[in-house]
Amino acid sequence: MATYEQALQLVQLLEAELIQRERDIRTHNAFYRGDHPLKFASDEFAKFHGDRYRDFSDNWTQVVADSPVERMTVTGFQASEETDADKELWKVWQVNGLDADSQLGFLGSVVNARSFVLVWGDPADPDMPVVTFEDPSQCVIAYEPGSRRLRRAALKRWQDGGEDFATLYLADEVWKFSRPHLATDGDKSPQMEDVDEALKKWRPRELVDEPNPQPNPMGVVPMVELPNKPSLAADPISDVGGVIAMQNAINLLWAQLFTASDYASFPQRVIMGAERPVIPKLNAEGEVIGVQPVDIEKFAVDRVMMFNGKDVRIGEWQAANLTMYTGMIEVAVGHLAAQTRTPQHYLVGKMANLSADALLAAETGLVKRVEEKQIWSGQGLREMARLIALARGEDDKAQAMRSGRVLWKDAESRSHAQLADALLKLKQLGFPFKWLALKYGLTPTEVADVMAMRLEELEADPVTELTRQIGGGPPTLGNEEPGPGEMPDEGEEPAA
Fold it and tell me: Which of 75, 218, 276, 419 stands the most exposed, by the fewest C-beta atoms within 10 Å?
């Protein structure tokens, strides 16, 4: 049991860690959305063109982040020493809408290096815990010294209206705090800064229907971290963080290309040996009272101009080679693809006539990248399944899930013809139908439905079904030759 002072100190320490992470999280989220400031430009270019391209970005960051997430789909959970997926865990997953929310959690991990899952029991429905994926800007977990998995405490901090809220999760209890939300912009007097400093302190939240602190019946910290590219000693790494520099370079090349094409559309010319043309100024009576120079902008767009003088010459500066910029942009995008293991056909808007095998080879890097993320996120999701069992009071299942596994949809994208051919060969080697159905991409629930349908077919027409199983295909009709392993019709000699 923690005292109030200990709980408050933990909240302050974890909040300080959250504040330290906020800068990178804001930057990564901005780059994912396409909010890219113009970088790497010279002072002269930035001075004259910086504002012009402020709202432009050629956003490859989003493609890099989305490409692995779209292949990360959970299909079920399997406890240790079980052959079937757990139906109750999958029911909790479905009721909490985690098919969709898990995609948000995986995207949060890819963009911001980590996301979180919170599990808590619902007193109104003890069999259906509340499971939510949490944003990394709001949550942080403290681990035991020297451990990357043993959770000591977790904090969720958020703003709602004019107040800040914080919930501290410990293994045996939960503390809830609040304070007025303070604006950080603007100049304030020393007296007002002292007032803000006093208001900034967390205070226990006043709760009507529950104690504060309240006991944690699960006995463990109910929040789990889903890291992206974890390391032994340092923090997890965002996939977006390594893309930012090259993304800035691509944006600058586009800005320079647009500027060069602008000048190419209106070539810069110099006229030598002639005075600047003028037009007369007339009064109301039509008398010439002076002259005024011709508008210089008229020279830039008019197709024909006439100048007097035998020595008049017109020169023109050569336009920049625009294909140089497009070539550099393609090279930069290729580097970005290689660095992030994103297939070229995801980034370049054209595809050659590639065979299916060539496409599979092109996506090998992405598939391995997805499989790595399935390992990293799978550890956290397996612990999440354990927390769900604890919240339901199923201690045996919670123990079994410690060494259980998360079932994922195949990360590799193949044609149905290729997949069916491969599964048929595996069937001939003796693999069971249920395993083949899972490999085909069906969820455990769908596999159960298919198995029930096969049982119905067998009960309705056992001869046809058994013939299909023996021969590996549909039964023969009429005088067709029987397939390998099939029984000939009655009265018919077997084929030689």
Answer: 276
